[in-house]
Amino acid sequence: MTEAKIRLYVDQALATGQPVALDEAQANYLFNVMRLGLGALVKLFNGRDGEWLAAVEHAAKRNGILRCTAQSAPLVPPPDLWLVFAPIKKARTDFIVEKAVEMGAARILPVQTRYTNERLREDKLRAHAIEAAEQCEATYVPPVEDLIPLDKLLAKWNPTRRILWADEGLQGRAALLQAAPGPWAILIGPEGGFSEEERGKLRALPFVTPISLGPRILRADTAAVAALTIWQTTLGDWL
Ligand code: SAH
């Protein structure tokens, strides 16, 4: 038997001897596109049970069955860091979700701000998150929540989770993060930035820490990756 090269997300329980039924798209990919035969090995993960080796037991055009043989990696959840961001143009929003998975965010929350005027396809974003996890060998897939107004999110916010607010108003200041470990969220604004009213509200919240991302104004997608990097290297799992 050759080594498993393909990594697939499935939405089913994974355990020793567990059969996993494939849907039409998965069967098509494994058997028609990748031409896997009986006994071939695949790596499976579901975001909960780690990564498993599974062997092809039944292969048909529109369906199939794999059987889990052994766990190949434990579940490694990212640190307790959320990414809160205002949607921007479609391709750049897709990028933000993909990068958030790669960089190790535990939950992705799109927010509607004063200057957000993009629509969202949350189902597409969830599919992007799964694809990104398949690619980057993650065993965890951060949930992508439905779009919610920033005000509403802040009104029900648990203050024990701190918010690292990328504040374009601090452009040019030192990007030093002196902060305590614990649950955090990063907040990134839309192309138009935050309104004065939003900035005033954020500044007044005791659990919000504003941060500069350097001397230039970054696009929101760049800002998301930059802020995730700062947090991961200071408080996260890059240490
Ligand atoms: N149009 C706005 C910029 C928005 S940039 C303006 O001209 O001021 C999009 C988002 O990226 C911002 O809301 C902020 O969250 C983040 N961002 C970009 N550059 C930044 C910087 N230098 N410091 C902190 N945050 C920044």
Report on the structure:
The protein folds into two domains: 7-73, Ribosomal Protein L25, Chain P (Beta Barrel); 81-234, Alpha/beta knot. 28% of the residues lie in helices and 24% in strands. It has helices at residues 24-33, 90-103, 122-135, 150-155, 196-204, 220-234; strands at 7-9, 19-22, 41-45, 51-59, 64-73, 81-85, 107-112, 148-149, 162-166, 184-188, 208-211. The strands form two sheets. Strands 8-7-6-10-9-11 form a six-stranded parallel β-sheet, sandwiched between helices. Strands 1-3-4-5-2 form a five-stranded mixed β-sheet. Strand 4 and strand 5 (64-73) form a beta hairpin. The mean pLDDT is 95. Residues 166-168, 170-171, 188-189, 191-194, 212-214, 217-218, 220, 223 line the site of S-adenosyl-L-homocysteine.
Break the fold down into its secondary structure elements and pairings.
Layout: E1 7-9, E2 19-22, H1 24-33, E3 41-45, E4 51-59, E5 64-73, E6 81-85, H2 90-103, E7 107-112, H3 122-135, E8 148-149, H4 150-155, E9 162-166, E10 184-188, H5 196-204, E11 208-211, H6 220-234
Parallel strand pairs: 1-3, 6-7, 6-10, 7-8, 9-10, 9-11
Antiparallel strand pairs: 2-5, 3-4, 4-5
The tally of helices reads 6
SSE pattern, N- to C-terminal: EEHEEEEHEHEHEEHEH
Helix and strand composition category: alpha/beta
Number of domains: 2
Proportion in β-strands:
15-25%
Which CATH top level class of the largest domain fits? Alpha Beta
Largest sheet: 6 strands, parallel
Q: What would you say the CATH architecture of the largest domain is?
A: 3-Layer(aba) Sandwich
